[in-house]
Amino acid sequence: MKVSATNIKLLKHLRVYLTLFKASIGTVMTYRLDLVTEIFGGIIEIASYWVFIEIIFSQFDNIAGWGRYEVIAIFGVFTFTISILKSIVLDNLRDISSKIVYGDLDQYLAKPISPLFLISLENFRLFYIPRCFIGLIFTYYGLSNIQFAFDPVFLFYFIYIILLLLIIYYSLLLAVFSLSFWLGNINHSYWIFISTSEISKIPVSAFKGAWKILFVFVIPFVLFGAVPVGIMLGRISANILISMSIVALTWYLVGKLIWKAGLRSYTSGGG
User: Fold this and answer.
1) Residue 217 is part of which domain span?
2) Distance CA 42, CA 65 (A)
3) Which of 113, 178, 215, 268 could be stapled to 258 by a disulfide with Cβ–Cβ 3.0 to 4.6 Å?
4) CA 48, 66, 155: angle at the middle one, nearest 5?
């Protein structure tokens, strides 16, 4: 059977990723104390926000019409999705800026495979995986305490939403960090992004006017938690995924356009 050039290319990239994955796991297991510290720090961070939720609902019955357990479910979905994306690709993208500024990009350009592929998947962040399980526990706890009937179609929606998240936020960060070709080191932008994404723990109905347009349709941070839970509970129509898909495609094209334009202007670390 003749193997197409596309399949050969896919297999090549898969083999490279598996090699990178094994190397990442080996590095992490070499420094196990760092792994334990990272996991413990993540658990404390998650626990502190849960305490915050309990304090809020000790004073109020709901947030923009969303009850305690619904908000806990949103928090759980957010924790799961952001942890999945950060473990695989998002944390790697913040290194683009320094690689451009200090000339480390040269070694990636010299390899016979996409430099963006190598940079994006260079390290697998194992310490985020326990956070994924904690997120699922919070999601189950929240949904099990309200009238919720699981439908298998929700699993399809959930997987599709994670795919949209990957495309949108990967492309968004790629667009921002590719500006380093002209602006220099802008690593701090990553933490601005992560901090801003925290608003996705807020129910979508809390956003009004221009804020709703910005955080729902332009940079849809609510896709992390509020939209998946809203769809499962019937509070939000699944049709919103159509507009989210358009946003994902738009950001993908913008990100690749800026990256390619930056590569054309790149003069290597030696100038």
Assistant:
1) 5-265
2) 29
3) 178
4) 85
Q: Is 3 exposed, middle or buried (0-12, 13-18, 19+ CB in 10 A)?
A: exposed
Domains held by the chain: number: 1
Indicate whether 18 belongs to any domain.
yes
CB of 98 within 8 A of CB of 181?
no
Q: Is 159 exposed, middle or buried (0-12, 13-18, 19+ CB in 10 A)?
A: exposed
Alpha-carbon gap, residue 90 to 222, rounded angstroms: 17
Domain assignment present for 9: yes
- Residue 149 falls within a domain, yes or no? yes
CA distance 254 to 117: 17
The residues facing 66 across adjacent strands are 63
Q: How open is the CA angle 137-242-225, to the nearest 5 degrees?
A: 20
In a domain, 270, yes or no: no
Radius of gyration of the chain (CA): 20
Structure tokens at 201: 């723990």
